[in-house]
Amino acid sequence: METTVSPVPTVTIGANAFEPSQTNGSILCVEVGRDRFRFLVQNARRQVCVLEDYTFPSLLNDHLLTGLLPALIREHPVLSAGPWQGIRVAVNSSTFTLVPASLFRKEYAGSYLTLMRGGDLLPHEFAHFCAHHDEGFLSVFSLEHPVADFFAEMYPLQPITFVQQTDGLLWATASLARHTLAPDQVWLYFEDEFVTIIYRHQQTLRYCNRVGYRNAQDLTYYVLYVLDELKLLPETTAVNLYGEITPFADAYTELGRFLPNLTFGSVPPNLNATAEFTELPDHRYLALYGLSLISEL
Which CATH fold would you assign to the domain 1-168+269-297? Predict the structure, then answer.
């Protein structure tokens, strides 16, 4: 007989103080990755008051979608509560692209992804999209049927919005860019063996891509290559670090050899969070924080 062990969060903020009766005025923001599950709650005062972070061997597979994750949601006092005012689910799909609003056609969403990846979507995938109205483009990404069905089953008849993880980063960097005087800003968001690079000039998005890397040297070469292609000088460009990186990481040391204006990023100025969140590193949860800024942009 198989025994299901309830996962334990690696980070937990505010869960014990949240009243489940408040969900009808609150927004649940969820981030689902290959080996991670994170969520935060934004209460009726638009204040981020709960955050938890879980790590799994591999999240997006049938066993965990039908085993560990359902058990976690059903047993968790916050995740099992509801109904919510809104639920935002960010998936870390590997296939995504940005399309100008003037060129976008809903019926061609799958074709955009086919062109980008050089092959058709798999039978368990379908094309989904998210509009960035203020910036004039849409993100188009692959969403797995089992993931969409899972959340629809966990939260029946509730308003669920699916986005790609990069959408959260774009909302967050738009907020950050509006509060800086520097005309050129680069953000690096780290995951295990992947980095998302975003560049804005005068607040306007000029570059966005997510790439894999094998080691710190490989990463540094690619970052410098991108800066060169964008005609940005490494010695003068402000580069902000976010995500799974620390001052002790090889990637930080290697990048620092070539990028003198390398800094760990701060939380978006528009983020309204309870005092407990000062315990967290400012740079770690940018994509998740971005989900709470949709109404701000």
Answer: Nucleotidyltransferase; domain 5 (3.30.420)
